[in-house]
Amino acid sequence: MHVCQEHGDALDFFSYVILFAPDFPIEDEMTLDRAFSNMQHGVDAARSRTTMADSLRELDLCREELHKARGLYESGEVLEAEKRLQAARERFRTSKV
Fold first, then answer.
1. Which domain holds residue 75?
2. Taken in order 14, 24, 33, 70, is the CA torsion positive or negative?
3. Alpha-carbon distance 55 to 69, whole Å?
4. How far is it, in rounded angstroms, from Cα 69 to Cα 19?
5. Residue 42 lies in a domain
6. What is the pLDDT of residues 30-81, one digit of tens each?
7. What is the DSSP letter of 77?
8. Which sign does the torsion angle of CA 34, 36, 42, 44 carry?
9. What integer is the mean pLDDT of 18-40?
10. What is the DSSP code (8-state) at residue 69?
11. Is residue 51 in some structural domain?
């Protein structure tokens, strides 16, 4: 599995998950578990690169949105989950890390 270390890669991966989750292309061998793990790793990597309070706050809010999105996917609420993922992506984008 490709793990997102760079900000741009992580943003692209957020977009990929928004577009395809929960039914990823078979050839990608992606699952919700892997996708959310990868996004969380991207957030964690971004947190390790900053000490700016505003960025850390945005990343914490991003993490909360990811948690909510995961629960929504698990309960079958795909449209609401997508909205939460879009909010998480926006929080990640504005973290400026």
1. 7-94
2. positive
3. 21
4. 14
5. yes
6. 999 999 999 999 999 999 999 999 999 999 999 999 999 999 999 999 999 9
7. -
8. negative
9. 95
10. H
11. yes
The number of distinct structural domains making up the chain is 1
Rounded to 10 deg, the angle between the 53-74 and 78-94 helix axes is 170
> Which of 61, 11, 75, 71 shows the shortest CA–CA distance to 38?
11
Residue with tokens 């395809």: 20
Would you say residue 1 lies in a domain?
A: no
Q: Secondary structure of 1-63 in the HEC alphabet?
A: CCCCCCHHHHHHHHHHHHHHCCCCCHHHCCCHHHHHHHHHHHHHHHHHCCCCHHHHHHHHHHH
Is 27:95 a contact under the CB 8 Å cutoff? no
pTM attached to this predicted model: 0.90
Asked if residue 35 belongs to a domain, the reply is yes
Which structure tokens are listed for 42? 């991207």
* Ramachandran bin of 76, using left for φ above 0, alpha for ψ from -120 to 50, beta for the remaining angles: left
- Is residue 13 within 8 A of residue 4, CB to CB? The reply is yes
